[in-house]
Amino acid sequence: xxxxxxxxxxxxxxxxxxxxxxxxxxxxxxxxxxxxxxxxxxxxxxxxxxxxxxxxxxxxxxxxxxxxxxxxxxxxxxxxxxxxxxxxxxxxxxxxxxxxxxxxxxxxxxxxxxxxxxxxxxxxxxxxxxxxxxxxxxxxxx
Length: 142
Prior knowledge:
Number of strands: 5
CATH topology: Rossmann fold
Largest sheet: 5 strands, parallel
Radius of gyration: 15 Å
Strand content: 15-25%
Structural class: alpha/beta
Helix content: 40-55%
Order of helices and strands: EHEHEHEHE
CATH class: Alpha Beta
Distance between the termini: 39 Å
Low-confidence stretches: none
């Protein structure tokens, strides 16, 4: 279920995947501070205080109250498509990250590649005007 905003119905929606990560939270903060956009962030679990409480602290009460959160999983294309519904812009910052090389590289590769494909398909399906895909140095780590 996508949250509706009390005001600003004329403002474009920016969906940010991985909004609880550092890059996602800073991106959300910039859009919210600008005030020209409605911001929707994706999280895997709306009840995960370990992930959401630091986001609240980063944004502060006022900005956090203006953020719409929606559950979505990179490995569930339908959830990504539903989260993107109505969005004008999408910023894809979500990707798994670990400090140590995992025993099975697919634990990182599958959600990174599959998630990006799901976001691309969701943008096409929902006629999103612009998509920004971010990456990190971790993408080239061997």
